[in-house]
Amino acid sequence: xxxxxxxxxxxxxxxxxxxxxxxxxxxxxxxxxxxxxxxxxxxxxxxxxxxxxxxxxxxxxxxxxxxxxxxxxxxxxxxxxxxxxxxxxxxxxxxxxxxxxxxxxxxxxxxxxxxxxxxxxxxxxxxxxxxxxxxxxxxxxxxxxxxxxxxxxxxxxxxxxxxxxxxxxxxxxxxxxxxxxxxxxxxxxxxxxxxxxxxxxxxxxxxxxxxxxxxxxxxxxxxxxxxxxxxxxxxxxxxxxxxxxxxxxxx
Length: 251
Known about the structure:
This protein is of the alpha/beta class. The chain has helices at 3-9, 38-41, 51-56, 58-69, 80-90, 105-109, 137-145, 173-185, 204-210, 237-249; strands spanning 14-19, 94-99, 116-118, 121-128, 134-136, 160-164, 188-192, 214-218, 231-233.
């Protein structure tokens, strides 16, 4: 690893980490926009991730639920990158993870839930779009697997939707405001495995830079924020994130 990078990040005490789908691919969860990504291989699959289509078309909902009933994330385990970030927090560094992922792997790796801000929601709960009642997703998927391919709310009959942010749906203002405050307070901001194409989450990089933070981007492909970064790493995420965390600790 570059000596200048090590010197720059050694001893950082307030670290904000933005994570995208790329951090979970080593756990067996496919990304969306990569060469083998879900939407690259099946562009029509994006239809099921659009709120307007999801609400209007039972066929889209059936495809969505079929996709998530067999989703790899239910079987996935945290990988070395997830564990390294949790270990960094355990070593006494103030780590806050702002994740675009909905898989819950940061928490399973050992980070306290209060230190993980799920910008795009979570796949582990499901909410009624009508009465707003929330249900554990495994309970809903059990209904899907039993043959109810477009499950309705058992309380009011409304449309059920995973607690995730779909295209056409705005991020929770309180969550986004909290994320911006974390980015602005960080001394080191690391974006890992994100294409940085989805706003407003990607703009957290700019918030951090404008506040004076060092910006490190770890991603296989170029991003729109590479020119703003102090360091851009194209290395394997599962290998390089533990090295970054060790450098921050000074070990």
